[in-house]
Amino acid sequence: MIDAHIHLDQYKDEELKVMLQELPGQAIEALIAVSMNLDSCIRTQGIAAQALGRVKPAYGFHPEQPVPAEAELTVLLEWIGQHAGDMIAVGEIGLPYYLRAEALARGEAFDMEPYLKILDALLALAARLDKPVVLHAVYEDALTVCDLLEKHGITKAHFHWFKGPEEAVARMIQRGYYISFTPDILYEPEIQELARRYPPELVMAETDGPWPFEGPFTGHPTHPGMVHDVAAAWGGLHGYSIAEAEAHLTANTVRFYQL
Ligand SMILES: [Zn+2]
Question: What pLDDT, on a 0 to 100 scale, did the predictor assign at position 52?
């Protein structure tokens, strides 16, 4: 299988070494490794260079962090343009749903304008480079991101660990956008409902590692092999055998990322 979204750069060197060595034994063929910012892009690139083709890097700016200085963003955009040849997608990019929610909960104002500008610049870059995009866009933010994708004429969009209103779900299905499920599909009723609703041909499996999970995964470090659990749970909701579910999810990921 393929882990369609993981933050390899956030694992410690020693953990990472063991994790990459274990991939063949876990029947994991490839990982889509997303980046957070310039430092993260450079580390992800270095990891990919040593991973014999198993690690497919995506370069971007994760929205759930402080707004970078203008100059820093310019350097990042240039760097991504220069390394587009070894990049599988632009990501992780999107809008800061959780940062905003936390600020509002503290009674503080939150300015979305700079984040919208950054996302707009990254989407323009993806369109120019003709690369797919990996999106962090949940709840009502998904609708704003759909507007921006349409503005830039981007059709290859992967909304990772998606959750959101029916209006966004219907629009994303209509546009043929992909989503991916994490190990929380084993225990989150909201996610299981979405998994029943979303067309099986537009779905992938991911871990978003090293993000920790609950339920049966409590206390277990997140690793790519957990996409097999995602496949089993997703397949169970659709009446597929584990082998069928794994084959579907892998084929979808290969098709989307042109692996
Ligand atoms: Zn992520």
Answer: 84
CB within 8 Å of 7: residues ≥ 6 apart:
33, 34, 36, 40, 208, 209, 210, 211
Long-range contacts of 76-81 (CB under 8 A, 24+ apart): 76/37, 76/38, 76/41, 77/121, 77/122, 77/125, 79/38, 79/41, 79/42, 80/41, 80/125, 81/125, 81/129
Three-state DSSP state, 181:
strand
Q: State residue 136 phi and psi, 5-degree precision.
A: -105, 95
SS3 210: coil
In whole angstroms, how far apart are CA 140 and each of 31, 104, 166, 252? 28, 15, 10, 26
Phi, psi of 59 (to 5 degrees): -115, 135
- 17: helix, strand or coil: helix
Tens of pLDDT along 162-201? 999 999 999 999 999 999 999 999 999 999 999 999 999 9
Report residue 109 CA to chain centroid gap: 28
What separation in Å is there between the alpha carbon of 7 and the centre of ligand 1?
6
Give, as residue ranges, everything with CB less than 5 Å from ion ligand 1: 92, 208
Round the CA-based radius of gyration of the chain to a whole number and report it.
Answer: 17
pTM here is 0.97
Identify the helix (H) or strand (E) that includes residue 204. Answer: strand 203-205
Q: Which residues are CB-contacts of 21 (< 8 A; sequence separation ≥ 6)? A: none
In the reported structure, the alpha carbon of residue 206 is separated from the centroid of ligand 1 by a whole-number distance in angstroms of: 9
Tokens describing residue 250? 């892998």
Within 10 angstroms of residue 158's Cβ, the number of other Cβ atoms is 27
What's the gap in Å between 142 CA and the centre of ligand 1? 15
How far is ligand 1, taken at its centre, from the CA of residue 34, in Å?
Answer: 7
